[in-house]
């Protein structure tokens, strides 16, 4: 006799896995949002690196925004 998991056990395990994944995704999103806010504060804080570096800041902020959309 094989002891296969019941359909209810399989469904329950699937739901638990999905809830865990959602929790992980939400934590990752919060981390990315915090990093984006930090970058924006650094930009608004006005570093004196010149205008050449300003394009790099804009690129970094855009990249963080793209990461959040994923």
Structure described in brief:
The protein has 70 residues and is an all-alpha fold. The protein has helices at residues 7-45, 51-69. Helix 1 runs antiparallel to helix 2.
Task: Report on the architecture of this protein.
- The model has no long low-confidence stretch (mean pLDDT 82).
- The protein is 83% helix and 0% strand.
- With 70 residues, it is mainly α.
- It has helices spanning 7-45, 51-69.
- Helix 1 packs antiparallel against helix 2 (51-69).
Mean pLDDT: 82
Specify the number of helices: 2
Q: What's the shape?
A: rod-shaped
DSSP strand content: under 5%
Q: Uncertain spans, ≥5 residues at pLDDT below 50?
A: none
Structural class: mainly alpha
What's the N-to-C terminus distance?
46 Å
Strand and helix order:
HH
Query: Biggest β-sheet: count, sense, barrel?
Result: none
Radius of gyration: 21 Å
Count of β-strands: 0
**What proportion of the residues is helical, as a percent range?**
over 70%
């Amino acid at each position: 006799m094989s002891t296969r998991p019941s359909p209810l056990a399989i469904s329950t395990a699937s739901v638990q896995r999905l809830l865990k994944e959602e929790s992980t995704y939400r934590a990752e999103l919060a981390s990315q949002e915090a990093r984006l806010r930090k970058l924006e504060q650094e930009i608004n804080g006005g570093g004196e690196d010149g205008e050449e570096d300003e394009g790099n800041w804009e690129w970094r902020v855009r990249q963080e925004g793209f990461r959040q959309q994923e």
